[in-house]
Amino acid sequence: MFRFFAILFVVAFGLELWGLITIGSWIGGWNTVVLVILTGILGAWLAKQQGMQVFRMVQHQLSRGQMPTDSLIDGVLILIGGILLLLPGFVTDVIGLVFLIPYTRMIIRHLLKRWLWNLISSGRVQLFFRR
Fold this sequence. Notes:
The protein is mainly α. It is built from five helices and no strands. It has helices spanning 2-27, 29-63, 69-86, 91-100, 102-122. Helix 2 runs antiparallel to helix 3, helix 2 (29-63) packs parallel to helix 4 and helix 3 runs antiparallel to helix 4 (91-100). This is Exclusion suppressor FxsA. Pfam families: FxsA. The chain crosses the membrane at residues 29-47. Keywords: Membrane, Transmembrane, Transmembrane helix.
């Protein structure tokens, strides 16, 4: 597992560096720096807006006695998207935006739920409930 994350870190860092150099050669160094700062600010604002919306939805569902499963998954995806947008680089910005836009987040949530259900159904992940 450590090897996987080490390789992922090196590949992600290489892609980000390549993206920054490529964009910098097209639009200039200072413009690239400003663009990275603006995407960080936009990401923080968008994550706050979407996060507050999901928080209100969780509160509403809990007050009605419902289990907020989709809203909790949305909250985790928004957190991951916000973190990715705060990291400098354009690859992580694109992935972070995909996690923060409600329509694409709905698709990712559906795929994530299907993947988790397949893991549970195949017995690779077991759930234990205590009474």
